[in-house]
Specification:
single chain, 331 residues, alpha/beta, Rossmann fold, 4-stranded parallel beta sheet, 8 strands
Length: 331
């Protein structure tokens, strides 16, 4: 159709895919970490304490003391490409752009930090994306992760007069493509070791235990993933939960406590983080560095960290399969 004279320019309609991961500071310094933590820890789904009680604590002791410590941790894993999480997510988006072809626009955003969801959506809309598949890169559903992506996307579109059609990639904790990718990745990692680990430990990000009792399926989906992977590998996969914060009771067993126990028992360990789509602070610093130190301090000797799926061949194959399935009817 030919637009009438004087009609404002409108980009041809196209389909977009938006990959979303958790987020990262812009730099490994205290001011950047403070900005990031202020946004992250102000999300009502992340910290479910009433703001009138929580914000004075956050703006007081937490944002005063934690940024410097976290900045040091980030500095240990920062790369020439910047944050590992941002760099890997960027490569995942580029791989999906190449796989899906020029008719699809693939972008990536961070739920907290940059590139922001709102700005990236605006870019996609300006490029003519009238149908957008939003893909939260969280295999297991959690209100504090998956749901916040939906919140951010829909909140930004609330005031738009011309809204795009939206689809959201559902959690894929038990998807055969995901289990197959994990199996291939873990087997590759194990084959590269000079020892056969006594314990294969899957460390998932922790959550307060109350979220389980309130109906969040996260704990059950983590256990389901581990059980399916154990069956696929033909060997036991132990489960633990990391990154405890605050005084509340969190999901157990705790990763740090389990590593200490295994070290004392003289077990050899290979640990991996199947709930993370890309390596980040919680895997590269908390597990590969601090986890190894905790294990060694308890007397353990043989320890290995196995990378996340990242933009590996199994990871790319899985992600493309999931996206193509959800894009059915739009391509």
């Amino acid at each position: 159709m030919i637009a009438p004279a004087g009609h404002p320019a409108i980009a041809p309609p196209r389909v977009g895919v938006l990959l979303v991961n958790l987020g990262t500071p812009d730099a490994p310094d205290a001011p950047s970490v403070r900005r990031y933590l202020a946004e992250f820890l102000s999300d009502r789904r992340v910290v479910e304490i009433p703001p009138i009680l929580w914000q004075p604590i956050l703006r007081g002791i937490i944002l005063t003391t934690r940024p410097k410590k976290s900045a040091h941790a980030y500095s240990q894993v920062w790369t020439d490409e910047g944050s590992p999480l941002a760099a890997i997510t960027r490569r995942q988006a580029a791989a999906m752009q190449a796989a899906l072809g020029p008719d699809i626009l693939v972008e990536y955003a961070m739920r907290y930090g940059n590139p922001a969801i709102a700005a990236t959506l605006d870019t996609m809309l300006a490029a003519g994306c009238r149908r957008i598949l939003v893909a939260p890169l969280y295999p297991q559903y959690c209100a504090a992760t998956t749901a916040t992506v939906t919140d951010a996307v829909t909140a930004h579109l609330t005031d738009l007069r011309w809204q795009p059609a939206l689809r959201f990639l559902p959690p894929y904790a038990d998807d055969a493509a995901y289990i197959d990718a994990l199996k291939a990745s873990v087997k590759t990692g194990l084959a590269a070791l000079d020892f056969t680990p006594d314990v294969l430990l899957a460390s998932f990000h922790g959550m307060p235990e109350r979220t389980l009792h309130l109906g969040d399926p996260y704990h059950c989906q983590c256990r389901h993933t581990a059980r399916l992977l154990s069956e696929a590998l033909g060997r036991p996969v132990e489960v633990a939960f990391q990154s405890r914060f605050g005084r509340a009771k969190w999901l157990e067993p705790a990763t740090d406590a389990m590593l200490t126990r295994l070290g004392r028992e003289g077990k050899s360990v290979a640990i991996f983080a199947p709930g993370f789509a890309a390596d980040c602070l919680e895997t590269l610093e908390e597990l590969a560095i601090r986890g190894k130190e905790q294990f060694a301090a308890a007397g353990g000797e043989k320890f290995a960290y196995l990378p996340c799926l990242n933009d590996s061949a199994p990871g790319r194959t899985m992600l493309e399969a999931l996206l193509r399935r959800e894009l059915a009817g739009w391509l």
